[in-house]
Design goal:
By secondary structure, this protein is α/β, with parallel strands linked by helices. The protein is 26% helix and 31% strand. The two termini are 14 Å apart.
Length: 301
């Protein structure tokens, strides 16, 4: 099995659209999001900026962190709090949330392209069969929509009703709302256990767990405590003809090697290919901004 993926192997075409990372540095990033220019925190950008300071001054809004887990927008111009953009061949409703999130995760674009390729290749070789993908901690649905776009049947699970509704809005914008997608507001760990008891199996599983989260009834999820048992349970959900598993996260300390080691236990004995790397966003200057880690496994053709 392979291990690390080099930056040169990442296809920049996956990042095409109305989102651009213009510059980064001094723990911030300068982004063009549709018609608006934003500055948001980027703790990994511990280097010098490359663009002229005038470029950084011509922004519509700046998100500033204030204490642990808090922050607020500083508005330089009057702009809408939500608007649609096209990115990586999908339509997203961007929202400037009070937490500084946009609901768009451009670092996942390379993973979306990778899953599309895996799914389309399998469906071309098995035209008569359906392919079922489970997306856990699915948030605003980028991975769900990419897999649906490629022809898979999806089960989309997140604990927050608001973000599941947001994902459904993205599906409608992307003209995928009539596709076979089950939208579920549920606690991920409890849902997985029920699926095991029901005997349901999946050809693909996607997990992008938070560092900390709560289920719809207040159930607590801590990545350092609960991720490994969840992965062990997901092993029982993989079909005999499983195609892929994608594990990603943004938690400090959960490096590509950490995720590789954890995922290797899930797919032990299945053969195929296993690799890991940093999730990256290309900057217009040619640099890459690290934005989390991933490990992914896929079956032999």
């Amino acid at each position: 099995m392979s291990a690390f993926v080099e930056r040169s192997a990442v296809d920049r075409s996956a990042f095409e659209g109305e989102y651009r990372l213009l510059d980064s540095g001094e723990e911030q990033k300068l982004e063009q999001v549709g018609p608006y220019r934003l500055i948001r925190p980027a703790s990994g950008a511990v280097w010098h900026r490359r663009l002229d300071p005038k470029e950084w001054s011509q922004v519509d809004a700046i998100y500033r962190r204030r204490g642990q887990g808090g922050g607020s927008w500083e508005w330089k111009r009057e702009i809408p709090r939500k608007f649609p953009i096209l990115f990586s061949r999908l339509q997203f409703l961007v929202k400037l949330t009070d937490f500084g999130h946009l609901g768009l995760f451009p670092e996942q674009a390379a993973n979306w392209a990778w899953m599309r390729e895996r799914i389309r290749d399998r469906l071309q070789r098995t035209r008569w069969r359906n392919l079922f993908v489970l997306n856990l901690f699915a948030y605003t649905g980028g991975s769900t929509l990419a897999c649906s776009q490629a022809g898979a049947h999806l089960v989309h699970v997140d604990a927050a009703k608001g973000v599941v509704d947001w994902a459904r809005d993205n599906a409608e914008l992307s003209h995928l709302d009539e596709r076979p997608i089950r939208w579920l507001v549920d606690d991920v760990r409890k849902f997985v256990q029920r699926e095991i008891r029901r005997g349901n199996r999946y050809q693909g599983i996607i997990l992008d767990p938070p560092s900390f989260g709560r289920g719809p009834k207040g159930q607590v999820f801590k990545i350092e405590r609960h991720l490994l048992p969840l992965l062990e349970a997901c092993r029982d959900l993989l079909a005999e003809d499983a195609l892929f598993v994608l594990l990603s996260c943004h938690t400090p300390g959960f490096t590509p090697t950490t995720l590789y080691n954890e995922l290797s236990e899930v797919v032990e004995g299945r053969g195929g290919h296993l690799e890991c790397g940093e999730m990256l966003v290309p900057e217009e200057s040619g640099r890459w901004l690290p934005s989390g880690a991933y490990a992914r496994w896929w079956a032999d053709a």
